[in-house]
Design goal:
Length: 385
């Protein structure tokens, strides 16, 4: 027994708000376009949206499988009661095979040696391993090379304790304006996986299309698609063809905690990087790089207060930052939008990526678990696929 009350603490003003209605709208838009089963990629805390609630919402929208990067993410989904196939895209690290079997997670097997180990552990423990074979067609990370895949496939079909239910590859630049390398990769994948037909064997589920593939390489949709960021309403690159309309699912908000007028010549923040050119109205926000709101936004970022854009001034601290509000007023408790819409204005994940000098993926996945997730809307709001 503890002397402290056991109740949720809800006073933190900074929240990530996830709109499940929008998420559903995006899934249905993708499903209508591709007419294939969807493996929803929910690695990295579902791109910052919250792993378990997001996964459950995706399943409610008809997503049939889930993809994660690491074993631990798959285990968290199983412990939450999720029973659909879950592929661990990152494959094996160290000796984890027993855990994969315990939690009935699908292993991404990337080499003959690993496949041998998997088959051995499955045999020793009297279980069957679920396996998808990973083929490297030019991404150059992990996977059996496409031009040496035959022996890998032969071994796979003779691995008695493995159910080889899938074969997959990953694009290096499916979201680029220049589609030539993606075409080369797809061609390599199709040639490699023709093994099964040549041998008169059933072809496992072939999947390759990430968000870029879904948007601009219909010929890569094959037997299943594997989008991540597009589910969340963000396009994978500025130049990708926006062939499917999606809307951002995530907003990030905080509240004003302090207001003051800074004298001309006074400085704000660590290292005194901002000096007031005149008496200046400044508010303090209780959010900083310790929440994943990047320090690179120091003297660069913008937020919405009262429906207008205002500049972050001075260094971003770990837990706080300062914003100049011009001639506007702001009161303690006023809503501040860091990502999302307020009035007629909107700050996008792409805006933040531009200020920070990174890609939208990193902006989303930086938002860490110190920020509570709140879910609004529901998956029934946008009809069915
Ligand atoms: C992350 C990932 C995806 C999803 O990528 P998006 O660009 O977010 O659609 C698909 N497949 C693999 C193997 C991945 O690692």
């Amino acid at each position: 027994m503890t002397k402290y009350p056991d109740c949720p603490i809800t006073c933190r003003p900074t929240v990530v708000e996830v709109d499940l209605g929008r998420l559903a709208g995006n899934v249905h838009a993708i499903a209508r376009a591709v007419r294939r089963p969807i493996m929803g990629v929910v690695k990295a805390n579902a791109y910052g949206h919250g792993l378990v609630p997001t996964a459950q919402a995706l399943l409610a929208c008809g997503v049939s499988q889930l993809g994660v990067a690491f074993l631990e993410e798959g285990i968290e989904l199983r412990r939450a009661g999720i029973t659909v196939p879950i592929l661990v895209l990152g494959g094996l690290i160290g000796n984890q095979i027993g855990h994969f079997l315990d939690f009935e997670l699908t292993i991404g097997a990337s080499s003959p040696e690993k496949l041998r180990q998997i088959d051995q552990v499955a045999a020793d423990t009297g279980r069957r391993a679920q396996v998808h074979l990973k083929i490297d067609t030019g991404m150059g990370r992990v996977g059996k090379r496409w031009d040496r895949a035959d022996e890998f496939f032969e071994q796979a079909v003779t691995s008695e304790h493995c159910d080889v239910t899938g074969v997959f590859s990953h694009f290096a630049d499916a979201d680029a304006a220049d589609k030539s390398f993606a075409a080369v990769q797809l061609d390599r994948f199709l040639r490699a996986t023709s093994f099964f037909e040549r041998e008169g064997l059933p072809t496992p589920t072939r999947h390759m299309a990430n968000s870029g593939g879904v948007l601009q390489h219909p010929e890569s949709w094959l037997d299943m698609v594997r989008p991540g960021i597009l589910l969340y309403g963000i396009y994978p690159s500025p130049e990708v063809e926006r062939t499917i309309a999606v809307e951002p699912v995530l907003s990030c908000k905080t509240r004003v905690v302090y207001f003051k007028v800074v004298d001309e010549g006074a400085t704000v923040g660590y290292d005194m990087t901002w000096t007031a050119p005149r008496p200046t109205r400044v508010v303090t926000l209780p959010v900083g790089y310790g929440d994943g709101y990047s320090r690179a936004l120091s003297n660069r970022g913008q937020v919405l207060i009262g429906g207008r854009r205002h500049d972050v001034i001075g260094r971003m601290s770990m837990d706080q930052c300062s914003v100049e509000i011009g001639d506007d007023s702001a009161y303690n408790g006023d809503e501040v939008v860091l990502i999302g819409a307020q009035g007629d204005e909107r700050i996008t994940v792409e805006d933040l990526a531009g200020w920070v000098g990174t890609i939208p993926y990193e902006i989303l996945t930086m938002l860490n678990t110190r920020v509570p997730r709140q879910y609004v809307g529901d998956t029934l709001a946008s009809g069915t696929a």
